[in-house]
Design brief:
The chain is α+β, with helices and mostly antiparallel strands and about 180 residues long. Helices cover about 30% and strands about 25% of the residues. It is elongated and about 90 Å long.
Length: about 180
């Protein structure tokens, strides 16, 4: 298979002005990351309806350059999507919302989970006619939420109006297991 030309083609040279424009719009360097790059040969397939065995002809290469952008100011998200479409971005999607610093929220969830576990243990021990002793073990099963993707294909017709984006909310679940000694 022939090699793609060494000279940078249009998609690569066009990407940098897009990055510069996004940076001017308030996106920091650390929030722009190449997330995919592909060079795929493009072929023309000759008509073989007569039973001939003609080989496909290489007509060029298709270059796809994917960029992941982290937007820290959600109020600017619709504007950034509009700006991307205006700059010629023709595919997009996988908008994901996440919390950069969930630690305080998770700490509160842990405290609440332990409080709930102790309260439930008291109710159960009273119902069983026993009393709770000391705590023997505490373990945690927690999971961080996977960002919820919202698929959207960006098209030129969206460039005129601000793209409405709804963020919803993220939830954090913490499960604790508390083992008590039981006094009869």
């Amino acid at each position: 298979m022939p090699r793609p030309p060494r000279k940078r083609s249009t998609p690569t040279t066009r990407r940098w002005p897009r990055c510069s424009t996004l940076k001017t719009g308030g996106i920091a360097d650390r929030d722009l990351q190449t997330s995919g790059f592909a060079v795929n040969p493009q072929y023309q397939y000759p008509d073989n309806s007569d039973g001939g065995n003609r080989q496909p002809v290489l007509t060029g290469y298709q270059v796809a350059n994917s960029l992941t952008i982290k937007v820290r100011d959600l109020a600017k998200l619709g504007e950034i999507i509009d700006q991307s479409v205006t700059l010629g971005v023709n595919q997009g999607g996988s908008i994901q919302f996440s919390n950069d610093k969930p630690e305080a929220t998770i700490t509160e969830a842990r405290k609440s989970a332990v409080t709930d576990a102790v309260a439930k243990a008291k109710v159960l021990s009273e119902a069983a006619g026993v009393s709770l002793g000391r705590i023997v073990e505490i373990s945690e099963n927690s999971s961080r939420p996977e960002p919820m993707p919202m698929m959207r294909t960006m098209a030129k017709e969206y460039a005129g109006d601000a793209v409405p984006i709804t963020t919803g909310e993220n939830s954090y679940n913490v499960t604790v297991n508390v083992t008590f000694a039981i006094r009869q």
